[in-house]
């Protein structure tokens, strides 16, 4: 098939790759134009100049409810490189550890009841209110429409979630998942996360951590699908509706249609979307020790600048640790030295053995535009635009999901399905 008969996909992140794979499944060829030298977009990795090692742009995880991302990894042959667990470990300000785990013997939404009722995260005086709050969500088949018009913080307050359950469970998990403070997001986002990830199905609660660098998780796309071509270092500056061409380095390339998977703040000329999209930052610190500094695979941190620590062992006995600060609107402006020192303080406070390990190297990563803010009343665009044969993908489009890798995978598939529907006709 000639270039003019193939589909142009702008962006080689998860959304663009998901669109290309869906089109390939339908026998439609595509060309992915990626501005950088690596796949992944905002969920990618890079080679660190100091250590020479490939490092993720922040730790990204998935859950059992991320069905489209899981299917994409399966088709790309990288699903086997996801490490799964059925529990989330927390540590509070005093160093006490708490666990929420899914009971295989109980159906949803009761699968979390033993660890919530019998655990130590929720104090006895808050158990009834927490159970009532969870039951209200679990038994609702439709999200209350008003939740799109109020903040998650206000909703939690109205529901009586203002004590340790809020501080120890809802706030850490929701802020980490959506990458924004509860005061800044629509309550509908929090409701969806609790319903879909925690309550809808016991398998949804599983936590998956990629063991390959993020770029490597989707890099096999061109090798496994003959109808997909990837052009690196090919930033698209403009899209033209007269022949649906894309402009790269001043040269036009004609295609049958265009799918843009760029974020809303960097769309090429010729594509516009309504609404105001605000970027949210994430800050990450990658530490490498000569010996295991952490005795667990990952842990959610309560009440500290760091929100999560993830550990990855190496064959030589060393250990890499990724620290994540979600909703980092304040710390994104801090000097890397301050971020590093605060991270070391958090790590050594939780894992004293880190003081005895030798730090081999460290890297601070700042992602000012890691995700978009799902603010109150925000209308997200559909895959179909008002311009014929030009489609939108990206986790910021109307997928029903937050700004996550799963949202990106769904958006790419949605855009491809919309295009295929147009080809099939009414």
Describe the structure.
The chain has 426 residues and is α/β, with parallel strands linked by helices. 28% of the residues lie in helices and 23% in strands. A hairpin with a 2-residue loop joins β12 and β13 (251-254). α5 (152-158) crosses α7. The protein is globular and about 65 Å long. The mean pLDDT is 93.
What's the arrangement of strands in the largest beta sheet?
A: 8-7-16-17-18-15-19
The biggest beta sheet, please?
7 strands, mixed
Count every beta strand, where a strand is a DSSP E run of 2 or more residues.
20
Please mark out the parts with pLDDT under 50 across 5 or more consecutive residues, or reply none. none
Radius of gyration: 22 Å
Morphology:
globular
% residues in beta strands: 15-25%
Count the helices. How many?
Answer: 11
Helical residue percent band: 25-40%
Distance between the termini: 24 Å
Structural class: alpha/beta
The mean pLDDT is 93
Core attributes:
426 residues, alpha/beta, 7-stranded mixed β-sheet, 28% helix
Overview in brief:
The protein is an alpha/beta fold. The chain has helices at residues 14-25, 67-76, 113-117, 127-138, 152-158, 164-178, 187-199, 214-218, 221-224, 336-350, 405-424; strands at residues 7-10, 30-33, 45-47, 54-56, 62-63, 82-85, 87-91, 97-101, 207-210, 228-231, 236-240, 245-248, 251-254, 257-260, 279-289, 298-301, 308-313, 319-325, 359-372, 390-392. Strand 16 and strand 17 form a beta hairpin.
């Amino acid at each position: 098939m000639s270039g003019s008969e193939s589909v142009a996909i702008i962006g080689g992140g998860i959304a663009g790759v998901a669109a290309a794979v869906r089109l390939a499944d339908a026998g439609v060829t595509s060309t992915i134009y990626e501005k950088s030298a690596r796949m992944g977009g905002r969920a990618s990795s890079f080679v660190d100049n100091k250590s020479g090692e490939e490092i993720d742009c922040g730790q990204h995880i998935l859950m059992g409810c991320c069905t489209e991302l899981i299917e994409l990894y399966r088709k790309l042959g990288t699903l086997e490189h996801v490490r799964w667990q059925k529990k989330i470990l927390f540590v509070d300000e005093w160093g006490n550890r708490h666990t929420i785990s899914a009971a295989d013997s109980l159906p949803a939404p009761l699968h979390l009841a033993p660890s919530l009722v019998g655990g130590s995260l929720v104090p006895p005086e808050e158990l009834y209110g927490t159970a009532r709050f969870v039951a209200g969500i679990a038994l609702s088949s439709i999200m209350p429409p008003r939740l799109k018009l109020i903040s998650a913080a206000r909703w939690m307050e109205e529901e009586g979630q203002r004590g340790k359950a809020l501080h120890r469970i809802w706030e850490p998990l929701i802020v980490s998942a959506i990458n924004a403070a509860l005061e800044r997001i629509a309550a509908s986002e929090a409701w969806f996360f609790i319903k879909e990830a925690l309550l809808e199905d016991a398998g949804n609660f599983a936590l998956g951590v990629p063991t390959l660098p993020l770029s490597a998780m989707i890099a096999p796309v061109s090798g496994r699908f003959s109808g997909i071509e990837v052009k690196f270092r090919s930033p698209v500056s403009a899209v033209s509706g007269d022949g649906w061409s894309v402009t790269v380095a001043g040269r036009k390339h004609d295609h049958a249609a265009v799918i843009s998977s760029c974020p809303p703040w960097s769309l090429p000329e010729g594509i516009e979307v309504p609404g105001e999209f605000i970027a949210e930052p994430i800050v990450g610190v990658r530490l490498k020790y000569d010996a295991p500094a952490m005795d667990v695979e990952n842990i959610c941190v309560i009440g500290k600048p760091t929100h999560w620590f993830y550990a990855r062992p190496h064959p030589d006995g060393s250990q890499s640790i990724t620290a994540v600060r979600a909703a980092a609107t304040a710390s994104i402006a801090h000097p890397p030295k301050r971020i590093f020192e605060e991270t070391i303080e958090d790590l050594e406070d939780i894992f004293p053995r880190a003081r005895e390990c030798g730090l081999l190297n460290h890297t601070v990563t700042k992602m000012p535009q890691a995700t978009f803010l799902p603010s109150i009343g925000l209308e997200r665009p559909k895959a179909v635009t008002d311009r014929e044969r030009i489609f939108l993908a990206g986790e910021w489009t109307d997928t029903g999901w937050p700004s996550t890798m799963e949202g990106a995978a769904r958006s790419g598939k949605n855009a491809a399905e919309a295009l295929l529907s147009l080809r099939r006709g009414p």
